[in-house]
Design a protein that fits this description.
heterodimer; A: MetI-like fold; 2 domains; globular; B: MetI-like fold
Chain lengths: 285, 288
């Protein structure tokens, strides 16, 4: 056990450029968001405490639709990515031929920016895109399917899964690699089949990793701006889109701030819930 | 059938298992190649469309190829200027975030201070916070400070976004230096300067390179803050791509810009993969 170091003025001075810089800019933007949502800190006009902006956002149909849509995208993207990534992570557990090269290929989307990823996938799923053309040529469908800008948001989910698969895969792989072979051999010797090994060993023991992956994916998909604005439905837009339109187009900064506070609180709540849940999972195991 | 009977059962099982694994590997290889390859292939196709020989619905591949789209994008759009802006901001942001992160990473990596976990979480804030919220309300802060629509403001914003990666990766490398080495150097009479020059800098170099590459790609990809704080005075590659994909959707232009943006990134990915331990990849992504 290392001894605790005391916080000396020297240490504070050393932490200031890094931690201080981040706290100053992120902290001040959070403070301004909260204050503006309550009617303070207006650039023009008068400032003063009011809950009116909260009332008007909470009673606005459009804002609530956007909020529900973003929640849906967050949940479905995180569940979808983990479902696709988990079998791959199991496959990568044991090294084998061609897996090194495969590992590099699979990581490519990690370094492809979200906007470029949207464009790449858009070429495939658009109305006259590759998938529709191929399916029609094979006479599987008569009418092109609407997968882009569809009202449900499948286009957004597809892009989120494609872009974030390697990121989630890396987290799941490190979670699975910490499961020891002994445990699995022991279970097999005691007569466990493939499915019971999967459901009783791999999934419970990888649970902390699965949770981290799902939380990080949810945060990304929930607060997303570029992907939804390219591939999302015409109505409703994502929360981040609605907030940006309100602020920059209608100059309704206070109402935008209310949406901002809702996004921040949701994000922090999810992170907090994760840390509580992780304690429970680790305590139970 | 007869051949199988001659073999002991466990050998048959073993061979079946081996074949099964081979089949699965082959399956994943093909799926992966299609999964990553086809989208990139389609973008290349779209960037090579010949404007005089249209590529339309029933064809899976353009009828003829030309470099006309590349010429058009470079001659008639702001891409050259955006490339210059992007590639001037990125190195500046990398240097600034390195200088700001270095002392913090040293403390977080080497000292066992109270509240270290909280500091490590705070450092991740730019990564965790939803980008658009930070962008919009940071633009208010920047307005007050007179930094909106300025080049320096953009560099600061990009620095902010790349710092979590830089600090995480450098903290890991500082933490991995064995205390023995430092003690030995001190016993042999090394001063602070010698310790920095001969121990810390050489030993954190791989982490430093990884951190710099992550910071660089973060800056090149940064969209939300640049879009709010920089447009319309400054255009970077992502904001240009956004305009090509939004109100004036021109698929061929978007294809050219997409390729321009992702090719350097993919090359850097392979550099990271080849020369550095993959630990840095997971360290930068942060197991929270």
């Amino acid at each position: 056990m290392k001894k605790k170091d005391k916080i000396t003025p020297f240490i504070i001075l050393m932490l200031l450029p890094g931690v201080g810089f981040i706290v100053f800019f992120i902290g001040s933007s959070i403070v301004i968001t909260v204050l503006q949502s309550l009617g303070f800190f207006n650039m023009m006009g008068e400032s003063g405490f009011t809950l009116g902006y909260w009332k008007s956002i909470l009673s606005s149909r459009e804002a609530m639709d956007s909020l529900l849509f973003s929640l849906k995208m967050g949940i479905l993207s995180s569940v979808g990515t983990v479902l696709v990534a988990f079998p791959l992570a199991l496959f990568f557990r044991k090294s084998g031929p061609a897996k090194g090269m495969l590992g590099s290929i699979i990581k490519v989307p990690l370094f492809i920016p979200a906007l470029v990823a949207s464009f790449l996938i858009l070429n495939l799923i658009s109305y006259h895109g590759l998938i529709n053309t191929t399916l029609m040529r094979l006479n599987i469908i008569n009418e092109p399917l609407r997968m882009l800008n569809d009202s449900f948001g499948w286009g957004v989910i597809t892009i989120q899964i494609w872009k974030n698969l390697p990121f989630v895969l890396l987290i799941l792989m490190s979670a699975i690699s910490s499961i020891r072979d002994d445990t699995i051999d022991a279970a097999k010797n005691l007569g466990a089949g493939y499915w019971s090994v999967l459901f009783r060993i791999y999934i419970p023991l990888a649970m902390p990793g699965i949770l981290v992956a799902m939380i990080l994916m949810f945060i990304r998909a929930f607060g997303d701006f570029p992907i939804t604005s390219v591939a999302g439905p015409v109505y409703p837009s994502s929360v981040a889109n609605r907030m940006q339109i309100m602020a920059n187009l209608y100059q309704e900064w206070n109402q935008a701030a209310v949406l901002g506070v809702i996004i921040i609180v949701t994000t922090f709540f999810v992170v907090w819930a994760y840390s509580r849940f992780a304690e429970l999972v680790q305590g139970g195991a | 059938m007869d051949k199988n009977k001659a073999m002991p059962l466990h050998l048959i099982k073993k061979r079946r298992k081996k074949n099964f694994y081979l089949m699965i590997t082959l399956f994943f290889v093909i799926v992966q190649l299609l999964w990553v390859g086809i989208p990139i292939f389609m973008a290349i196709m779209w960037s090579l469309v010949n404007p005089n020989d249209a590529w339309s619905y029933p064809n899976l591949i353009p009828p003829s190829f030309s470099l006309e789209q590349w010429r058009y994008v470079f001659n008639y759009t702001n891409i050259a200027r955006a490339l210059k802006t992007s590639y001037t901001i990125a190195p500046l942001a990398v240097i600034l975030s390195f200088l700001l992160s270095l002392p913090t990473s040293y403390i977080l990596g080497r000292k066992n201070i109270p509240g270290k976990k909280i500091f490590m979480l705070v450092v991740l804030l730019p990564m965790i916070m939803p980008g658009m919220v930070v962008a919009l309300f940071l633009s208010r802060v920047f307005n007050i400070m007179g930094l909106s629509q300025t080049f320096f403001g953009l560099v600061l914003a990009h620095t902010l976004m790349s710092m979590p990666y830089m600090i995480r990766v450098m903290t890991t490398s500082f933490a991995s230096i064995p205390q023995d080495v430092i003690d030995a150097a001190e016993n042999l009479g090394a001063g602070t300067f010698v310790k920095i020059k001969d121990i810390f800098l050489p030993m954190i170099r791989p982490g430093l390179i990884a951190g710099m590459i992550f910071a660089f790609t973060t800056s090149i990809e940064e969209f939300n803050l640049t879009f709010i704080i920089g447009t319309p005075t400054f255009e970077t590659i992502p904001t240009i791509l956004y305009s090509f994909m939004g109100y004036n959707f021109i698929r061929t232009n978007a294809a050219v810009v997409s390729l321009l943006m992702m090719t350097p990134n993919i090359i850097m990915l392979f550099i990271v993969e080849r020369f550095l331990k993959s630990d840095y990849l997971s360290a930068s992504l942060g197991k929270m």
